[in-house]
Amino acid sequence: MKISRRVGLILGAVVIVAALVIMYVVVYSPQAGQRNDLNARLSRAQTLLPGLTKQKNDLGNQLASAQSSLEASRVHFPESVESIEYGEYLFEIATDCNVKLDKLSFPQPFSKTVGGVTYSVVSLSLPVSGSLANIFTFIDTIRTDERFASTEVNRISMTISGGSASASISVTIYAHKG
């Protein structure tokens, strides 16, 4: 059986076309699908990029602002509560305000965390006596003196008899822990 040249050429062309179709289905078609998927993902990423870049810049600005605020706040908080220094300051203020600071004892500081920042905290009771006006001056000085910027006046108990008064002033001193 002899195949004519024409049939041989047609059969050869069919085989070549079949091979090309099989190659397209096996190799090119999955790559085309992957390329389309990658192009879609690239398009989404390019759409998101400006928003994410802006968000990154905004978060960087917020971080810088928070760090600046933290550094500014640290100025108002001493690194540690030194009982000798605070004792000297309190006796100096008492003398300047014409009140008598009856006794002063510093308890052991304890730690307190507020908003992710840890403070060393000392709570004191300041028993003072003198005229009512001088006691108020003493309290106001503690509240406004820059050495006590990290001090909170919690409670005041007063006793008034005749022309003199006595008070027990409860304060809390905060110090920033490094």
Give the tags.
five-stranded antiparallel beta sheet; Alpha-Beta Plaits; rod-shaped; 56% helix; 178 residues; 3 helices; alpha+beta; single chain
How would you sum up this structure, described in words?
The protein has 178 residues and is α+β, with helices and mostly antiparallel strands. It folds into two domains: 1-75; 83-176, Ribosomal protein S6/Translation elongation factor EF1B (Alpha-Beta Plaits, 2-Layer Sandwich). Helices cover 56% and strands 25% of the residues. The protein has three helices and five strands. The protein has helices at 5-76, 83-96, 132-144; strands at 100-101, 110-114, 117-130, 151-161, 164-176. Strands 1, 2, 3, 4 and 5 form a five-stranded antiparallel β-sheet that branches. The longest helix is centred in the first third of the chain and has 72 residues, at 5-76. The protein is rod-shaped.
